[in-house]
Design a protein that fits this description.
The chain is mainly alpha-helical and about 375 residues long. The protein is built from 16 helices and four strands. The N terminus and C terminus are likely disordered.
């Protein structure tokens, strides 16, 4: 059996909340960890993951080839959307290689992560240090991602399409700072800086290739890379990122990290990263097993901390807030939108109604 830590350089205990018994009242983290060991749920399956990567690449190439063959706008529009969402696979690969989950060899994880990030102009080495700190400081002021988003009005939802681009610019800014000797505080080791230098070189090389393509074959670049990347950055990634921690609070993992089951195709493309809560609780579990393990969390994820659809989550959160800031009910700390039923229920916490007891009692009544 192979046992591995999240990151040999991660000094904070990313499972501190579980160790301290603060993961969720009544949730037995010890039993879940025992299950991980007994069933070998942290074992890396390199060949299976390589096949997964090749299939995603082949699917993207097939869609691009189909679009070039037809070369009509009516065909390109749905293909661009599909290709944009396929770019979620790069995000999944970047994330899984950060945790060393795709291959046993460290160099193979670094290579796969760097290549997956490169095609999005996304510096993997910077993300790796950023993400380890995110695990250690989730939803706090020390979290590199910042405190969780809590849109209080429909107007604020208009910022969603900027989410992916913001993260891209932010990580490249941190990379530039590191290159000039002023790294962010969470870049602590020489190894992390080396990873950042290498990924910066990879991003620069790919950017040079993009510039060359814009001169030599602009139509090809536009069709098979630029538009799908914009769909990914402005539609797919914001839609997927929002539920992960939005409206969360510092403290126990299940108060700031969601599970979104979505569908099998999206889960496959995104390497099961939509099962986000169990990953934060036990980040050593590889992606093949997180759906199974996630179902043990279902009784403890009340309200919309467990939901079945990204679109439904976003739509119902959007409906729960006023049009303009500071008016009517908010979708943040004062209310909880319960998405477990076919109809929307908003539990108002301003009157002292306890979220867990309200949702649990209603669930009991349905049984």
């Amino acid at each position: 059996m192979s046992t591995r830590t999240v990151d040999e350089q991660a000094t904070p205990d990313v499972l501190a909340d579980a160790v301290d018994g603060r993961a969720s009242e009544g949730l037995d983290l010890g039993a879940l960890r025992a299950m991980v060991r007994q069933r070998d749920l942290a074992r890396v399956r390199g060949w299976r993951n390589l096949v997964h990567m090749v299939l995603e690449l082949a699917l993207y190439a097939a869609l691009a080839a189909l679009g070039r063959a037809v070369d009509e706008l009516w065909a390109w529009v749905p293909l661009w959307i599909a290709m944009g969402f396929l770019f979620l696979s790069c995000g999944g690969i970047i994330h899984e290689t950060t945790h060393g989950h795709l291959y046993r060899a460290r160099w193979a994880n670094k290579l796969a992560g760097t290549l997956a990030g490169m095609v999005l102009l996304f510096p993997w080495g910077t993300y790796r240090a950023y993400h380890i700190e995110h695990h250690a400081s989730t939803a706090t002021k020390d979290d590199p991602e910042g405190v969780p988003v809590a849109f209080g009005s429909k107007l604020e939802f208009l910022l969603m399409p900027l989410g992916g681009l913001y993260t891209l610019v932010q990580l490249n800014w941190y990379t530039a700072r590191t290159l000039v000797g002023r790294p962010p505080r969470w870049v602590r080791t020489r190894g992390q800086r080396r990873d950042i230098y290498r990924s910066a070189a990879a991003v620069a090389a790919f950017l040079a290739l993009v510039i060359t393509g814009a001169v030599v074959a602009p139509a090809l670049l536009f069709d098979v890379w630029l538009v799908p990347v914009l769909v990914a950055m402005c539609v797919a990634y914001p839609l997927i990122f929002l539920p992960e921690h939005a409206w969360g609070e510092p403290g126990p993992t299940l108060t700031h990290t969601r599970t979104t089951t979505s569908n099998r195709l999206l889960s496959w493309v995104y390497w099961n990263n939509n099962y986000h809560a169990v990953h934060h609780l036990i980040p050593t579990v590889v992606h093949q097993h997180v759906p199974e393990l996630s179902h043990h969390l279902r009784p403890y994820q009340t309200g919309d901390w467990w939901n079945e659809s990204y679109l439904r989550f976003t739509w119902r959160r959007f409906r729960s807030v006023p049009a303009l800031p500071g008016r009517g009910r908010t979708g943040g700390d004062d209310v909880v939108v319960d998405l477990r039923d076919d109809h929307e229920v908003v539990i108002d916490l301003r009157d002292g109604v306890d979220q867990a007891s309200a949702t649990s009692s209603r669930a009991s009544g349905e049984k």
